[in-house]
Amino acid sequence: MDCIDSNLLKSNTQTMESINCPICLDDLGPSYATLSVCQHCFHDSCIKQWIQLSGKQTCPTCGHIYGLNKGPQPPHGQMIITYISTPLSGFSIEQYASNEGPTIEITYTIPSGIQGPLNSYPGQPYTGT
Asked: Where along the sequence do coiled-coil regions lie (predicted)?
């Protein structure tokens, strides 16, 4: 299973009488896959295609996340979090640890590059920040 962690699925050979695959809505039949934590059942090919096309290792029925969920963020981007001791307008000053503050500033630095398979236009260039 190259598109999915092998610990995610277990194969079954029992017939699921009158139960349909939630993805394609056909009968599950004698061979199906069960997700390891939530126990939802799908045709093996349906769940593999779901994970490959969606780019998410999640159950399509309940949304349980299996593994690391990755989005279309660039591989060499950087996020810097800065805690500022001055509160934003309208917010009061409270007690914070020495490495925290009432205001959190997040700065993203993303270099220019080529869009990946989870982006809107795979293979096309994008301009960084």
From this structure: none
